Amino acid sequence: MVYSGKKASESNEAPVEPRIGVFICHCGTNIAGSLDVIAVKEYALTLPHVVVSENYAYMCSTPGQNMIHDAIEKDHLTGIVVAACTPRLHEPTFRTATANGGLNPFRFEMANIRDQGSWVHMHDWDGGTEKAKDAVRIAVAKATMLEDLYPMAVPVEHRAMVIGAGVAGIQTSMDLAKAGIETYLIEKEPTIGGRMSQLDKTFPTLDCSQCILSPKMAEAGRMPGIKLYTLAEVEAVEGYIGAFDVTIRRHARGVLTPDEAAARGIVGGGCTGCGDCSQVCPVVRPNSWEFGMAPRKAIYIQHAQVVPLIYTIDFDACVKCGLCETACGTKKAIDLNMEDELFTIKVGTVILATGYETFPIEEKSEWGYKLYDNVISSLEFERLICASGPTIGHLIRPSDGETPKSVGFVLCAGSRDNTGIGKPYCSRFCCMYSLKHAHQVIEKIPGCRAYIFYMDIRSFGKAYEEFYYRIQEEGAKFIRGRVAQIQELPNKNLLVVAEDTLLGMPVEIEVDLVVLAAAVQPTAETEVVRRLFGVSCSADKWLLEAHPKLDPCGTTTAGVYLAGVCQGPKDIPDTVAQAEGAASAASIPIHSGQVELEPYYAQCVEKLCAGCGMCVGQCPYSALSMIVADDGRTVMTVTAAKCKGCGTCGGFCPGGAIRMQHFTSPQILAQIDAFFLGGEQ
Ligand SMILES: Cc1cc2nc3c(=O)[nH]c(=O)nc-3n(C[C@H](O)[C@H](O)[C@H](O)COP(=O)(O)OP(=O)(O)OC[C@H]3O[C@@H](n4cnc5c(N)ncnc54)[C@H](O)[C@@H]3O)c2cc1C
Ligand code: SF4
Ligand code: SF4
């Protein structure tokens, strides 16, 4: 940014009369098609202190920005108003244009006449025009009172944290570590890998999921740049971009790693993954990783490829008999009295990669999930068809263990569903994995019929449409229509009742097994993490990116980025692409070494502060504290880097001692007056 850099308080010049330039954007026809931009431009010229008023097709374009730049120089402007879209989209653009003209960039104010104007009053030309005039008048009132502000530079820790270690979190961590950034990878489960490690094959190439993921898991587990914490969750967050203090709770695992054993002076000790403990453990529980379709002991690993290869005790199940301790012998890896650990890590940037879970499909009771034995979910299918699964890859009917001779796949089970029970959005990978599932039953079980009940097949990715053709050629039967009901027959077969919308008639097909392609949704833990980091979410609760097209990895919280399905459903190629993008975005501030923070923070006007301290507890970001001032009085002070400018304290202080930069009381009152008095202040 090119501006003088001189602070207002350093200036020797007498205050000058405000000279405001107003620039109205057409946004193509987005604005100009629904309101009279020429009338708004002419109206602006009638407002006090406005010396220039212009309109242009795209103010954000280079010629549009040059108009601002040129007018600042030619007309000696002191403030700029752009009436266009949202500050979220183009505030940085117009600030830069303002600075390029030689003005402090914070002498710019935006009037949103598109999203809050032309778009909501699309069919009310006169009303939309009047509202745009109001918005411009209010913005001009503030622009006359703007002052020079200066961003605050804060140093950035040379460390990052990735929360969630599915394929997204693993990829992001590896990229960051390879870029020389010390990376903390936090995973709530005992192993990394996420959902991808539960899959058998992957569409459209049909390569084995574990075969492509396991090497990555192993590499991430041993990379010197990655510090991995499994069975760990975020407990608290303080700080800001550059210096987040993240408190981690590491749940008691009950088993020591070799390093932890060494730290306790146990020479050559720690878990080697031999499994002797699990052999002797008398407690048997359903293995939740196999969706209860296989047993596990109270001391267990989820599957053979876990990283780290360290056993875990389920303390809710453990009876503390001590048999495992004896079996473990000289390795002395077992600590039945281990407790949770809390520790805090300081990092510069954070990437959320907390993934997804499946929608509780039993809520759609018409399909009989959890009511009928032979109705299973798509993830259960993945485990049953997988060679490392509970049936060593033999697909069976849960009711009798027989091999099915016909399987019905119900797509959009809870997705694209506006009934109130289900999700209105498309889960994006279910069409493709259901095609994969149909292929797997046709390939593995000679003569088995596969029926696919679908609304439309969404095969949008590279080589996906070709995969769809292939499955049709392999003989899968496609029935276009939503399944209304599934009925269980006395022989435990299932009658799938649907409408074939291509034939325009109802159909009833009897099958041995039904697989529901359940919708996906954000996990409950994602909501906890979202709140801790102050990240927004969309109406459907997926984490919200800073901009859907131009900043898909960023969030509105500076220094926090998104990777993978926590931002919205996406398949593995898209997940990995976003993970690489997030790593790149998160490494920029770290490699820059410092970032500039918005100067929108609170300030204490010491002479007005009564020292009551009541504001301190109000700040949600712990930005306020009490100090002894030079004159010996106790007053409040603000840690500017922690302040998010929310204004809570400013509104709270009974003595009016807190001033919010860029949102001062006089500025806000001027805007209110401009609205109510129509400019006659
Ligand atoms: C049945 C089925 C079949 C599929 N088949 C394919 C396929 O063939 N090809 C394909 O491209 N895609 C497929 N997919 C999609 C694929 O599963 C996803 O694209 C991929 O797993 C997304 O990875 P992720 O890392 O974003 O999320 P996840 O795999 O969900 O990983 C998220 C990780 O974060 C952890 N976590 C969550 N919250 C926290 C927290 N608060 N603290 C710490 N850790 C946390 C979780 O434990 C998990 O390990 C399939 C999906 C399903 C349901
Ligand atoms: S102490 Fe707990 S984990 Fe160990 S063998 Fe006994 S029940 Fe199993
Ligand atoms: S404005 Fe006040 S309450 Fe809000 S973050 Fe800043 S100091 Fe805290």
Automatic annotation (TrEMBL):
At the top level, the lineage of the source is Archaea
Which SUPFAM superfamilies does this entry report, sorted A to Z?
4Fe-4S ferredoxins, FAD/NAD(P)-binding domain
Keywords per UniProt? 4Fe-4S, FAD, Flavoprotein, Iron, Iron-sulfur, Metal-binding, Oxidoreductase
Which residues does the UniProt record annotate as the domain 4Fe-4S ferredoxin-type? Answer: 262-292, 309-339, 600-629, 634-663
| EC class name | oxidoreductase
Q: What pathway does the annotation place this protein in? A: Cofactor metabolism; coenzyme M-coenzyme B heterodisulfide reduction; coenzyme B and coenzyme M from coenzyme M-coenzyme B heterodisulfide: step 1/1
How does it associate, per the subunit comment?
Answer: The ferredoxin:CoB-CoM heterodisulfide reductase is composed of three subunits; HdrA, HdrB and HdrC.
The protein's name: CoB--CoM heterodisulfide reductase iron-sulfur subunit A
Say which species the protein is native to.
Methanorbis rubei
Per UniProt, what is the name of the gene that codes for the protein in this document? ndhI_4
